[in-house]
Amino acid sequence: MSSIGRASTLIAAGTIVSRLTGFVRSVVLVAAIGSVGRAADAFAVANQLPNNIYAIISTGLLTAVVVPQIVQAAVHPDGGRAFISKLFTLGTVALVVTTALATAAAPWLVQLYAASFSPDQLALATAFAYWCIPQLLFYGLYALLGEILNARKVYGPFTWAPIANNVVSIIGFGVFIALFGGPVTTVQAWTPTMIATLAGTATFGIVAQAIVLMLFWVRAGLHLKPDFAWRGIGLRNIGRLAGWTFLMIMAGQIAGVVQSRVMSAVSGDNPANTVAANAMLLFMLPYSVFVFSIGTAYFTQLSEHAAAGRHGEVRRDIARSIRILGLFIVLSTAVLAAAAVPASRIFTTSSTYATDAAWVLLAFLVSLLPQTVLFVIGRTFYAYNDTRTPFLFTLVQATVVIITALLAGQHLPAQFVTAGIALGQSIACIIQLAVAAWLLRRRLGTIGARSWMPALGVFIVAAIPAGLAGWLVYVLSGGAEGWMVSGQFLGAVGTGVIGLVALAVYTGILALLRVPELTTAWNTVSRLFTRR
Hints:
MurJ, transmembrane helix, single chain, 20 helices, membrane, Murein biosynthesis integral membrane protein MurJ, cell shape, mainly alpha
């Protein structure tokens, strides 16, 4: 377990720095184009296009297929080097072709995701897309190399490389503001030079991120070389696994298209694509710091146990990871719920917009804990090279997302459509978790629920007064009219103050209850500062 602790600490430290610089990046971007408006939503849709394909590559094909295959190939006499070279060559060829096709299809892709945009807003989004879609190639290379490094238990570079992207973007967006002022919110104000400066900066940041990761090849012992001899590497088996994963991710993407189209209909003065993206950034902060950092190391170990047929160890991995992840995630949910308005103020240009955006964040937070448990359960199926079952429960989730998004668009006031979509996504996640847990229990006999569910209950009991204490601090500060929402920087400070109060109450209650996971959590956090 000490190796997992060290790996988790390294990933968590990199993720924290990455996310903090990412927050600064988003703040500067808001200063350049605003948080609510047609120009901001046009860029959000265009810049999201390569991210959607990256989601397919990173959380789909690579996590589900590549990591278990590399772990199994490690037993080869060469340590799996030949297999990795062939796989990397195949992946690079596929990325180049996909990027070329997607760039050529930019007008149709924008139309697909934002059918309700006005003609001039569609034109601006398409111009942004031509600059942004080439990110696909470098997102893919970053994801492919990163998962290879993770499978070889080299976790740090994959986590620290995005900092380069954030630094480049902060500088580039700052140059945009210096040259053209900001925020530039009207569609008609944008010139080709402005478009190239903003979107070109976003793409160059992804290029820098991929280049930084490439520098760690030799250190990891990855002497990769082009190898087009793909026969004999198990393409048929990989294709079978990837086929179900592709269908699973496509179901999610179809649901995402529906959500984006519904939000595009309320773009303008209401929370829409940009607000949803920034709310998801806040939602992903604890998910990335804790779930990815601890869960990534566990997934590699879990894959090894599954490959060796040690099912008892797999069940223990499930229970241990859910308990320790749950301790952090339940607290994070309470903090973000209490600080929803100040946290949203970080990415908005006024207190009114922050209040509207807070409803979107709160709706997403409903699924933060279920999403965490689902992460562990889903990757357990992947460890057993089962991608068919995740497709089935993801299909259920995608169906619920589509239905709830359409209902939100038809029945909610424009001001709350995006929040309704976020709540529908949370409800879909809870249903997906119930189905996934039932299916995994059928496979393993038990998933240790009697071990981790009571622990989660204790965490929730402790989080309720912690969250209320944090919310009371917000109210005493003046609430929606107070200093915590008077500016973006003060929004960040206020969020930090609320978080510290909630943390003190939460840890105090858990210490009184003598919760054993608190010691593990303390050791994980202390490593960040002592580097032990």
